[in-house]
Amino acid sequence: MIKILCSDKDKFRFISNLVTSSDDSFIFKHFFYFDSIKSTQDFAYELLKDSDDFYASVIISDFQTGGKGRKGPNWASPIGGIWMSLALETNLKTHELFRILILVTRLLCQSLESHTKLKTMVKWPNDILVNGKKVAGILLDAEVEGDSIKQVIVGIGINSNNDLDSTKLLIKDKNIEVYDYDITTIKYENQNIGISNHDFIHFFLKRINDAFPKLKSSVFAEELTAYYKIKIMESQKHLKYRFSIGGNKFRGEIIKVYNDGSLLVKNLESNHYDDLIKINSAYDLSNL
Fold first, then answer.
1. pTM of this prediction exceeds 0.90
2. Distance between CA atoms of 153 and 245, rounded to whole angstroms?
3. Are 31 and 15 in contact (CB under 8 A)?
4. In terms of C-beta density within 10 A (0-12 exposed, 13-18 middle, 19 or more buried), how is residue 8 classed?
5. Where are the domain boundaries for CATH 3.30.930.10 in the chain?
6. Which CATH code of 3.40.50.970, 3.30.930.10, 3.30.1660.10, 3.30.70.420 fits the domain covering 3-235?
7. BPL/LPL catalytic domain: from which residue to which, for each copy (predicted)?
8. Mean pLDDT lowest for which of 6-20, 50-64, 148-162, 262-276?
9. Burial of 245 by CB count in 10 Å (0-12 exposed, 13-18 middle, 19+ buried)?
10. CA distance linking residue 136 with residue 159, whole number of Å
11. Which of 2, 35, 41, 151 lies 20 to 30 Å (CA to CA) from residue 51?
């Protein structure tokens, strides 16, 4: 059953065109598109909590007053960007959650590169960069039962056409830590030429619809993992990584990316040249 709830006619027209251009196998059935909301991720969570029947859902908002990042604090989500959460059902095991991250990572990179001439980078574990500056991020929340993932909420934030200076001021006002790299927008990096957010979302949703059912395939998972490993290792040519163990921060070199997204890192600030450290994946739920 298709359900569409939008705040204006243009949004409704966009979602209607998306639905009518898809066949019955389109996995998304419920669509919510707001002018403003506290958090698309929180809204998706409430949908899952309050509903007895699950329907794969898309939640989009022009603006978020309390957008979230991977480490919890609010993130700036001004008008012009793409702020979206996807609620999906899956039969993956807890140790396979990482597959969802690397699928979304690859599809976002491909979507961005197909709409511009920009080259993407991926900073471990879940940030997408252009010219060494963050342009998009991914957040995963999972509903777990035993060793299985029942549902997952994929949060996606993209600095597409939002004003860069205003976004930086919002980040400063929220006292958000911007790690070891700057932020940017697609428009700024694309010679001040914006993209159509609707075209981008349409392109991305079509591709995740085609790819998501393949996640149980070990062959497909190996393909995704190989792509992610290459992206992470390539990022070191342009970025300096800092890691934290027990509250102690240090500059490190990634030696190896494991299949679960964990890392083997050389501590570049240690007196011991062969001081290697394992950095655990944030997306392995198997020990919960």
1. yes
2. 28
3. yes
4. exposed
5. 3-235
6. 3.30.930.10
7. 20-216
8. 262-276
9. middle
10. 6
11. 35
